[in-house]
Amino acid sequence: MTDDVSHDKRALRAELRERRRICTAKEREEFNTGVTANLIELAQRLGSTSIAAYLSTTDEPETRGFLRWACDHDITVLLPISRADGLLDWAPYDGEEEDKDLIGMPAPTSEVLGPIAINDVDLIIVPAASVDHSGMRMGWGRGYFDKTLGSMETKPPVYAVIFDNEYVAEVPTEIHDQPVDGIVTPSGIVTITEHN
């Protein structure tokens, strides 16, 4: 069973990577404008004062415009730095230099705060390959965000950022996979689970 799910995930990830790769520059620019506007709307709607987010890679919906806006509006932003043990450290975003972490993901160069720093935020923005209508998130296979979300005793609202066609009826799911409360896409915000 797990081998089948694992295979299904690999196949779906490959298809999604290819779809993202063949996006035109014009499409990508329009998508990024929509994602930035919708992330800003979400943060304003929730009255967020501190956010855990991430620096997008070239194939992901762009997060930097939103991160700059958050900093300009005195919202504390924490960004992840991958660790060898599969956990995430967090560091404040200052809009300045970026580096690569140990798995090659974009990371801030500011002071590292450790894994529990995320416990103080009031909104978490995560990357995803796909999210289904029940809120199950399929990541890119490294498990960092699943471990982080799974280890939190209480979580603020968690939203994944994806392209519109990556919000699907169902994604292959394993026991460790963590759901999200909603998604942000270029065309809008979908809240799947109301957060109390």
UniProtKB/TrEMBL annotation:
It comes from the Bacteria. Its EC number is 6.3.3.2. Its cofactor is Mg(2+). One of its GO terms (biological process) is tetrahydrofolate interconversion. Substrate binds at residues 55, 60. InterPro entries: FTHF_cligase, FTHF_cligase-like_sf, NagB/RpiA_transferase-like. GO terms for molecular function: 5-formyltetrahydrofolate cyclo-ligase activity; ATP binding; metal ion binding. It holds the Pfam family 5-FTHF_cyc-lig. ATP binds at residues 9-13. Keywords: ATP-binding, Ligase, Magnesium, Metal-binding, Nucleotide-binding. The keyword Metal-binding applies. It catalyses: (6S)-5-formyl-5,6,7,8-tetrahydrofolate + ATP = (6R)-5,10-methenyltetrahydrofolate + ADP + phosphate. Belongs to the 5-formyltetrahydrofolate cyclo-ligase family. This is 5-formyltetrahydrofolate cyclo-ligase. It comes from Salinibacterium amurskyense. The lineage of its organism: Bacteria, Bacillati, Actinomycetota, Actinomycetes, Micrococcales.
